[in-house]
Design brief:
Layout (H helix, E strand, L loop, with lengths): L3 E6 L5 H15 L3 E5 L4 H5 L8 H10 L1 E4 L13 H8 L4 E7 L12 E7 L9 E5 L2 E4 L5 H17 L4 E6 L7 H16 L4 E6 H10 L6 E4 L1 H15 L8 E3 L4 E4 L17 H13 L3 H17 L13 H11 L2
Parallel strand pairs: 1-2, 1-3, 3-12, 5-10, 8-9, 8-10
Antiparallel strand pairs: 4-5, 4-11, 6-7, 11-12
Helix pairs in contact: 1-9, 1-11, 5-6, 7-8, 9-10, 10-11
Bound molecules: adenosine-5'-triphosphate.
The site of adenosine-5'-triphosphate has 17 residues, from loops.
Length: 336
């Protein structure tokens, strides 16, 4: 097996704990890997670096093309721009892909949920263009461009085709934001009609969409949406399948891909060794698929599925008592 070089950003809060666990599981699966460990977020500032997103971290991800990243915190009130937003913009990681599916052994309200949220990752209300027009009046600019809307729509249809998905639902609010959300619809329809007429396509106003998601999530397949709605809807979908501890994520661009859990740095449980590492381990599985190590990906998937089904070694968020590393050890034991 060729040796892979992968950038590892441990992150802040529970980041170092869950990334240590994910790293051990990936190595135990048999990946031949050299990790290039680099900081971002509060960890970078603590190390006295110039920026929350150091140049050498960015350069390494671009050079090696793939990173596994723990959650990072952006220090508040020091004029730092969000690390995640910067990373996505600077590396042009324009598509966030967040699968949420039912896991055997994890108790939830619904069975058979299998949804992939595809979120535009570079514009919308995350433009960072805010200003105080006059004292007491602030504007926040929502940006939509034809290039980014077309790019994310094409990505979603390509993803659906490659992953044998049947339907794309675009969640939008074009009845109010006729131009910005309207542009995403125009671009999505164009791609659907011209390039992917065999995928089922529907449009749904976001408020009705989230209601239907909580009533019957099984009717949904791939959700395509802009940045802000994607942020909210992917947490909602996480809630449908067991919470933030069990959903992975990836940020994909043409030049690099960064794999990370949907959850944040969870400062409330940081350093206690109780965080669930599964979301980052699952993100590692997506990473292995991305680098064409499908056999190893399946090995890890099968191992954590067995651990969940047995229900003996679960973290607190899943109703158990196990610590972060103990849970990782249980997964590793299933791969021996
Ligand atoms: P941030 O500001 O970095 O987003 P946050 O606490 O606002 O942090 P999350 O980190 O997403 O947001 O956490 C939301 C809730 O979910 C917290 O109560 C946290 O403890 C819990 N949580 C998040 N990730 C995990 C995990 N991996 N294992 C267990 N609980 C988690």
């Amino acid at each position: 097996m060729a040796k892979h070089t992968i950038v590892l950003v441990p992150g802040d809060g529970i980041g170092p704990e869950v990334s240590a666990a994910a790293r051990r599981v990936i190595e135990a699966a048999g990946l031949s890997v050299e990790w290039v460990e680099l900081p971002a977020g509060a960890a970078a500032v603590e190390q006295g670096l110039e920026n929350v997103l150091p140049q050498r971290t960015l350069a390494a991800i671009l050079a090696h093309k793939v990173a596994l990243k723990g959650p990072v915190t952006t220090p508040i009130g020091k004029g730092f721009q969000s690390v995640n937003v910067q990373l996505r913009k600077k590396l042009n990681l324009y598509a966030a892909v967040r699968p949420a599916h039912t896991l055997g052994g994890v108790k939830t309200r619904f069975d058979n949920v299998d949804i992939v949220v595809i979120r535009e990752n570079t514009e919308g209300l995350y433009s960072g263009l805010e200003q105080e027009v006059v004292p007491g009046v602030v504007t926040s600019l929502k940006v939509a461009t034809e290039v980014a809307c077309t790019r994310i729509a094409r990505f979603a249809f390509r993803y659906a085709t490659r992953n044998h998905r049947k339907k794309i639902t675009v969640l939008h609010k074009a009845n109010i934001m006729k131009m910005s959300d309207g542009l995403l619809l125009t671009c999505a329809r164009r791609i659907y009609e011209a390039e992917y007429p065999n995928i089922e396509y529907e449009e749904m106003i976001i408020d009705a969409g989230v209601m239907r998601l909580v009533q019957d999530p099984t009717r949904f397949d791939v959700l395509l949406t802009e940045n802000m709605y994607g942020d909210v809807v992917s947490d909602l979908c996480a809630g449908l399948v067991g919470g933030l501890g069990v959903v992975p994520g990836s940020n994909i661009g043409d030049d690099a891909a960064v794999f990370e859990a949907v959850h944040g740095s969870a400062p409330d449980i940081a350093g206690k060794g109780v965080a669930n590492p599964l979301a980052l381990i699952m993100s590692g599985v997506l990473m292995l698929q991305h680098i064409h190590e499908e056999t190893l990906a399946r090995r890890i998937e099968s191992a954590y599925q067995q651990v969940l089904l047995e229900g003996k070694t679960l973290t607190r968020d899943l109703g158990g008592q196990a610590g972060t590393q103990q849970f990782a050890d249980a997964i590793i034991a299933k791969m021996r």
